[in-house]
Amino acid sequence: MGSETNVYGIADSSYKAAGELSGIIKLVDAFYDFMGTLPEAKKIRSMHPQNLSESRKKLAYFLSGWLGGPKLYSEYFGQIKLPVAHRHLPIGLAERDAWILCMQKAVSIQPYEDSFKDYLIEKLRIPAERIRMVCSAP
Question: Smallest Cα–Cα separation from 10: which of 116, 113, 108?
Answer without folding.
Answer: 116
